[in-house]
TrEMBL record:
Record protein name field: F-box domain-containing protein
Domain F-box intervals: 12-48
Transmembrane segments: none
């Protein structure tokens, strides 16, 4: 009778568990029930970090979708946000407290958090929501008595504020909320800190009277700069063209405007590119144009066209 195989060392078990697929989190739960040694490895604080480092990118939990339904009184009464999970069928469900209720609106999602705007009667509240634990951090809106909501077009973003964080496991750490509005020919920016539990005084900048902050994708460039799209030429929802980028410098708490590289219609988006540069994509006709721009104060070299590609080639490449 052959001798039994040697027992796996703790290091070998660690390497095996490290290779469990990240898109099936239930496998980690099942592995923790095998025996106490395996449970000890999985519950060790160092395992989640090694697991994320090994798999490089975090799994996508799902897609947030904002919906607006017609209403005879006010469209705000008929808005709602829903989450479509994409985890495997045998994975544990996400915690979604009150997310599907009318009045909810997802403003931003980053670093394991979702920034929600919730309407309740004539008032609004902001909430930073953890979709994994279901925890919520509710904060009052800036500007006093909903001025930032009722008299403006607004946009916001949530980001981790922990020092030297790699953003692999920071959803329970300190965070900031940058809230930007545009009204009365001015842009305002407030910053909320979870550590102080208070909003800053607003940074204010004069802008074109018909310009307004877009609710499209916002980006972080480098460590201290947040960028928001500016639309103009008409009322919100009936705009004529993209006009520029509203830049907020988190370190200096000030606003400035970056002019548009060219005139584009509604099909524009911002992105973060390598070497702390701001990326911009716009569509004109059937061609996609990509631009890059340094946004650090001492390195502003203006917009540089990165490339332009027929949309048909882009679609062919992505299929």
């Amino acid at each position: 009778m052959p001798p039994p195989p040697p027992e796996l060392t703790e290091g070998a078990i660690f390497e095996v568990l490290l290779r469990l697929p990240p898109d099936d989190p239930a496998s980690l739960v099942h592995a923790s029930l095998v025996c106490k040694p395996w449970r000890g490895i999985l519950s060790d604080p160092g395992f989640p970090r090694r697991y994320r480092e090994f798999h490089r990118s975090l799994p996508i939990l799902g897609f947030l979708r904002n919906n607006i339904y017609p209403s005879a009184s006010s469209w705000l009464k008929e808005r709602t946000c829903s989450l479509a999970p994409i985890a495997m069928a045998n994975s544990p469900p996400l915690l979604i407290p009150e997310l599907h209720c009318p009045g909810g609106w997802a403003l931003d999602s980053r670093h394991g958090r979702v920034l929600m705007d919730r309407e309740s009667g004539d008032s609004h509240v902001l909430a930073v929501w953890d979709p994994v634990t279901g925890g919520r951090h509710v904060l009052e809106t800036p500007g006093g008595k909903d001025d930032a909501f009722h008299h403006s077009v607004h946009s916001a973003m949530v980001l981790c504020s922990a020092a030297n964080c790699d953003h692999c496991d920071c959803s329970r750490g300190p965070f900031l909320v940058v809230f930007v509005t545009s009204y009365s020919s001015k842009a305002h920016a407030w910053v909320y800190s979870s550590e102080t539990g208070a909003w800053s005084v607003p940074a204010v900048l004069g802008i074109h009277g018909r310009a307004f902050v877009e609710r499209k994708r916002r980006v972080i460039v480098g460590d201290e700069i947040c960028c928001f799209l500016l639309g103009g030429g008409g009322a919100p929802g009936n705009r004529a063209r993209f006009t520029g980028v509203l830049k907020y410098d988190l370190g200096r708490h000030c606003l400035s405007v970056i002019e548009a590289p060219e005139v584009y219609e509604d099909s524009v988006v911002l992105m973060s590119m390598d070497a702390s540069s701001l990326g911009f994509a716009g569509v004109r006709g059937s061609t996609l144009y990509l631009w890059s721009r340094k946004v650090k104060p001492m390195e502003d070299i203006g917009w540089v066209q990165y490339c332009h590609t027929p949309i048909s080639e882009v679609l062919e490449y992505t299929v």
